[in-house]
Structures are given as structure tokens and as C-alpha cells.
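Memo to structure team: turn this sequence into C-alpha cells by end of day. - J.P.
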Amino acid sequence: MSPSTSRREFLRSTLGAAAAAAGTVAATSRPAAAVNKRDAVMALLDTSGRQPYIPAAFFIHFDPKFHFGTAAVQKHLEYFRATGMDFVKIQYEKTFPPIPAIKRPADWAAMPSYPIEFYEPVLSAVRGLVKAARPEALVLMTLYSPFMCAAHTTSLPLLTAHLEENPGAVRKGLEAITGSLMRFVKECVRLGVDGFYASTQGGEAGRFRDPAVFTRHVKPFDLVLMNEMKRTCPFNILHVCDYNAPYSDLSPFVDYPGHVVNCNPQLTGSKLSWAEIARLFGRPCMGGLDRHGLIATAGPAQIGREVSRVLNDASRPFILGADCTLPGDIKWENIRAAVDAAHAHKV
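Reply from structure team:
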């Protein structure tokens, strides 16, 4: 049985359960409690656009003592239950170690391709969270792109300069990184994750003097990994990450795989509506709240009003979220207020 056939069968059973529960959803004051969270999120992939309710999910980085192993499992579960969000996203905290010896483009030829053992601290958390959370919610693994991992290895300014000076030399390092990340992706799939929250960077406005550097020498490595996720997983989220800088154009990413797209609608010269983004990518969207905005600074009542405003204008189907990771010191009750408001919003 092909992966696409398996996904179609899964969707048929999922959507049948979600549709049967829809009447209960409308009749209760806690809509999200009436529908299994796995069903509700997978319902986004129904081409009819039916949603039993609007799912929501927000992400934070935990204190380093909760990055790996049992501690990471317990903290992720605590956060998932406290906020009421609709899927578990495992934070990726095993960044590539700095290599000071990479000073020139030619030095990227010595970039190691880390074995699967390198990722064991993260994989231990994956095992625990798949076992604990997968019966009730999708479990997605965060993945940084090869470009992002290369920036951790040196620095973003140095990597950018090297790609502009001699992209062919840097590609040797990106190939090694991609091979390493592919081992990690395949092992996560083997352990039972439902998909990935796959982040891309490098195409920001002004990153390269010639935008073709991104298209020719960064994007191909993104696609190697994301196409593998598409082949093996029923639910992936494409995250166009503006953590370092904004974008002037989202069109370079429209052919990236991902069942849902998460991005910031604010570009350098304009702000897109969610309907425009949904048409551009041809798929459901996730977002709506500014990570530094009201969710981080206001009280529950004001957050609830902002969620209603956003969802009244959002495309359908839709997942409420932020444009990127929320501040680590945010009050969890603020996140819960946003999630509850999404669940209560009329579909």
C-alpha cells in the first residue's frame, strides 16, 4: 500500500469520526473536548474544508534542564496539557556544535556528517512523547534546515558571506549536513512521529545580494529533506521562519512540501491576508497572532477578543498559532486563553 493510499484511508476514517462529532461540538460550551485532537487536526486536509472546530498550537523553548530525555518528555506533556493545544511539537535543541576551523568557503569540505548517535538526546524525548501523547494527538518533530544548521556551525554572517563568495564550496558542507539530518528524519519516522514542523531560512529579504543564491544553493537541500517527509508522513507543517529577518516575497516557497503553511503575513512592503496566503500556497494556513503582540503582553479577555478578530478574517481551514516561537517567559495562561478562544470560535 502506498503512503498516499494510506493517508487517504486514514483521512476517510478520521473525517467520519470528526463529522459525527460535529453536532456535539456545536452543542457544548467546550467544543474541543468533544472531538479527538488527532481527528480535528487531520480534518484540515479534507478538501471540502470541514472543521469540527479551529485547532490551536503555540510553541516555546523550555529551560535547558528540560531539553532532553525524561525531563523533556515531562515538560512537553505538562505544557501540552496546561495550554490545551491540539498537537505536540517536540522542540529541537541539539544544535550543531561550532567549528571555528571553518574560516573560508573551502573549509566546508571538512564538515562532518554526524551519525545518528549525535541525535540520541533528542531521540530519547521522541520515544517518550510518541508513547505518551500519540494516542490522543499528533506528534510532530521540529526540524531545522541544513542552512540553519550550517549557521549554527559557524555564524549566519559568515555562512552568508561564504555562499556569496563561493557557493560551490559551501555546498560540500550542506551536503554533509543534509545527509546527517536525513538520518535523523528517518529515525524519527521509524519511532512513530506523525510528521515534522520543518523550518526554512535563507530566503529573507536582503539575505543575499543575488536571490538566486538561495534558489540554487539553499533551497535544493531543504527540498531533499522535505520531500522525504512528504513521502513518509501524513501531516507536515512548512514554517517559513522570519526569526532573523522578514521576507519581501513568499513565492519562492510555494513549491515546498507541507500540508499546512505557517508564516508571518507581514512582508517588507505589504501585509498579506490569510486568504491570499491560502491561495498562494494552495493549502491550509497556521498563524494569526504576533509572537511579540497581545498574546505576550495582554490579559486573557483582550487575548480572546484578538483571537476572535483574527479568526473572523482568517481563511478556512485554519490553525490558530503564532508567526514563530513565543517568548520563553510568557505566561502559560495567556496561551491557554488563546487556545480556548480558538476552540470556542464559531466555525
